[in-house]
Amino acid sequence: MKRFFVQRKNIFLASILILCLILSTLAFAQQESRENQQKVKNVILMIPDGMTIAHTTLARWYQGGEPLAMDEIACGLVRTYSANNPITDSAPAATAYATGYKTQNRYLSIYPEMVSMPGVGQVEEKDFYKPIVTILEATKKLRKSTGLVFTCQFPHATPAAFASHTDNRNDYESIAEQMVYNQVDVVLGGGYKYIDKNQRKDKEDLAGYLKQNGFFVTTSWQDAKNFSGQKIWGLFAQDAMHYDFDRNGTGESSLAEMTQKALQVLSKNRNGFFLMVEGSEIDWASHANDPVGVVSEVLAFDKAVKVALDFAKSREDTAVIIAADHNNGGMTLGMGTTSIDSILLNDFLKYIRRATRTAAGVEDILGNNRTDENIKKVVSQYYGIDNLTQDEINAIKNAPQGRLNYVLGPMISKRSYIGWTSNEHTGEEVVLYAYHPNGYIPRGVIDNTEVCDYMAEILGIDLGSFNESAYISNIDLEEKGYDVSLDTSNPTNVQLVINKGSRTYIIPQNKNVVLEGSNQYKLKYVSVYIPSAKRFFVSSEVESLIK
């Protein structure tokens, strides 16, 4: 009898153990299933540079109150401050989206040496200025395709943050070279002069390098539209492209058209893709306090959003994330002491709806003919304003070249009861929008670095593992006993020189190559030189190469 009870007890314990194992297996399977449901193959990040809630409100009213394409996926807010300032500039803001780290103003995808904002971790001195691997670079290492679409010049801060590393966002020539050697698969926007050997100060033939590496390079939108391959750089303006309202007759494409083309090309890769789309000139119109430019660019951006959402909704493997990098201008609908009861909807829209060009477009039309009569004629024809004061005419006449929008914009704003507090960025949160095929989206108030964390998570990328061993500096190499020096004889092409016995290895800045005699070796990452700190960062596998 005792043996019978012992056997029953053992059977009972075994049953419990088996049940626990089954439950554990089921829980693990459910967790794995949830994680698989969260994963996507493609991510489209869209950045409406400088866009605020006032911008979208005005654009919505301009189109009769109809919702914007992005409205349906609004889900939270994003905090935008940089490592050293509550008001960020575009470089560290884009860096946060690109890398998941905050840096200081003017820096692109490198660690800061100055951290003063609460909650931002201090960087060790040895890592000051060190390049941070971006989500675009990481996805490329995973054999996904990568793309950048914008209307500014391609080395400008936002696209640059995803494919270059520097402490000076204005060093367009170095940034352009890094972006070219990073070999982003699809680049569509402006800035051809930065790859043209005849226009670059260092005479580097970057367009030739791209062609030699299998890229189709063009300045013609028609040629780009007909392209059927997988690697293209289409740069449709020598510098920045025109505002959308001013595109007629330029031969330039719209942001929506470029987005459509990028998706067509990138989706050919079975491994998936990462695409960043920027509405670049929302920011520029805001700097100028030009409400016509704001409406032009917000609506152009929203058309690109519709293209992206239509693409994502037609599949089960694509997520779309939209967030401005910062606010700009402190724009308001309503200004000064004007009574809210006295302003009707048409008062906001009358002059903006009459406008057929942005203020920048009007400047192109005026040219050098800034007589009183021609100013009145052009402003009447393109803005519907027939009551310019003599002071306003004089202000238009005396506006510096390229800055007429800073004069005309406020004139339209004043007549439209639109207020502005600044010609610069402001520090409030921006709206977060997100679409995921299985509804896995971030909500609430998040930090801009968490946007990158989210993208990395759903793509299945461990960005931290990339950064652990991506770069080594000239100082690190010296401390390890290597014979290292910097050749600064050509300031536009600084080189790291490593001597090893009878061999000399030369590593030029902004490229991903090592030269040793007649031999050339390719590195994983582009080399970065920080002149202010005399630090040269090179892809860390260089050590195995020279041993």
Description:
The protein has 547 residues and is of the alpha/beta class. The chain has three domains: 42-269 and 284-331 and 423-464, Alkaline Phosphatase, subunit A; 336-419, Diphtheria Toxin Repressor, domain 2, CATH 1.10.60; 471-546, Copper amine oxidase-like, N-terminal domain (Copper Amine Oxidase, Chain A, domain 1, 2-Layer Sandwich). It is 39% helix and 18% strand. The chain has 20 helices and 22 strands. A ten-stranded mixed beta sheet has the order 5-6-4-3-7-1-8-13-2-14, sandwiched between helices. It has a three-stranded antiparallel beta sheet with strand order 15-22-21. Strand 5, helix 8 and strand 6 form a beta-alpha-beta unit. Helix 9 (255-266) runs parallel beside helix 11 (291-313). The chain is globular, with a radius of gyration of 27 Å. The termini are far apart. The mean pLDDT is 94.
